[in-house]
Each structure stands twice: as C-alpha cells, then as structure tokens.
Amino acid sequence: GQQVMQIPQYQHVQEGEDFTTYCNSSTTLSNIQWYKQRPGGHPVFLIQLVKSGEVKKQKRLTFQFGEAKKNSSLHITATQTTDVGTYFCAGLDYKLSFGAGTTVTVRA
Amino acid sequence: EAQVTQNPRYLITVTGKKLTVTCSQNMNHEYMSWYRQDPGLGLRQIYYSMNVEVTDKGDVPEGYKVSRKEKRNFPLILESPSPNQTSLYFCASSPTGWDEKLFFGSGTQLSVL
C-alpha cells in the first residue's frame, strides 16, 4: 500500500537559519499537499504541487515536487519564531496519505 | 465565516460509554473526513464521505461509525470506546474530494479511561 515517509521527525533550528523537511512516497503521486499545524492548533493548508519538477514559493517557504513525483521538500529560509509548528505533507495517489510530520522548534 | 466546527473540544470518558463527536461545515462541501492524530503517526484517516449517504472506511476504521444524512454534518460515533482510542481527532472537508485542499476543524481531544 501507499506509504508517505517524512523526515526528519524533529527539527531544532536557530532563529535565522535555514532548514528543509523531506517527504518520500513509495508510489508515484498525482499531487502533494503541505499543511502546517501550530502548537495546539489544527492543520492549515499551505500549498498543493501537481506537476513534475514543480517549484512554488511563499515568501520564505519554497516547495518542490520531484521529477518522478515520488518526493517533495519544503525549505524555509531565515527561520522565524512564527515558523514553529508541525509541517505535514500529504501525497495523493488512489488516496490521500499524510506523512508523520516534522515538528519544528526555534531557538531565539 | 467559512469553517468546520467540531464539538466538543475536549472529552474525557470511560471505557464502554457510547459517545458522539459532531462535525459541521458551512461551505457546502461534498467531501468530509475524520482523522486521528497520534504522536509519531501523523494523521490517519478513519472514515470519509464523498457525498450524502456515501461513506467509506479509511485506514483505521475499527471501533468507529459515521453517518452522512445531511451534507453539512458528519458525526463520528464510538459505540464502545476503549483506551486505545484516546487521541486527537480532526474533522476535515473539501469541495469535492481529497485532490483539493482540506479544511480542518479545531480538533477534539478524547481521553478514554
């Protein structure tokens, strides 16, 4: 069955530094979605990638979809305290499967 | 305001006592779904519904029931809760299906003693 693996599980970042979280699927995906969950909150949609090799940017966040459509990444530059939370990817083939998430903490 | 509303926000119950978690959306969405979130496991789908009177099992349906009698409501029923159902539950909806962005409710933290 489809599996979506997300690494790392935890990311401790110094404020101002960059980091990347990765999402890998065992199957080829139709699309991939990214969500952010603030501590104590609910997941909120960030973006959806559909095309092979697609790159999208949202301010300091850069999302990529791999050429084979089996992996994706989220890169955050110049991390801020507002970036704290858990980032989930969700890959769609015959169903939507969520990764386990990357929980980000920021040292001021 | 467009939203998905879940109730209650917190619930503590005992083993075997039937409970219902309500979910309602005001966006006229066709697709609704229930997830449970556990540490290290991410979001796992319990049940989903593509439209009124149409429901299907997700990845972890055992011990849960759902119904979709109206488009806006999608309650989650635990007929006989057990401690392993202690979890954070989220209801979500989208306009037509899981190929569109999901709107999540605020969550229900359930503890079964």
Describe this structure in words.
- The complex is a heterodimer of chains A (108) and B (113).
- In chain A, the strands form two sheets. In chain A, strands 2, 4, 5, 9, 10 and 11 form a six-stranded mixed beta sheet that branches.
- Chain A has 108 residues and is mostly beta strands.
- Chain A has one domain (4-107): Immunoglobulins (Immunoglobulin-like).
- In chain A, a hairpin with a 5-residue loop joins strand 4 and strand 5 (43-49).
- Chain A starts with a strand and ends with a strand.
- Chain A contains no helices and eleven strands.
- Chain B is an all-beta fold.
- Chain B contains no helices and eleven strands.
- In chain B, strand 5 (42-51) and strand 6 form a beta hairpin.
- The radius of gyration of chain B is 13 Å and the shape is globular.
- The termini of chain B are far apart.
- At the A-B interface, strand 4, strand 5, strand 9 and strand 10 of A face strand 5 and strand 10 of B.
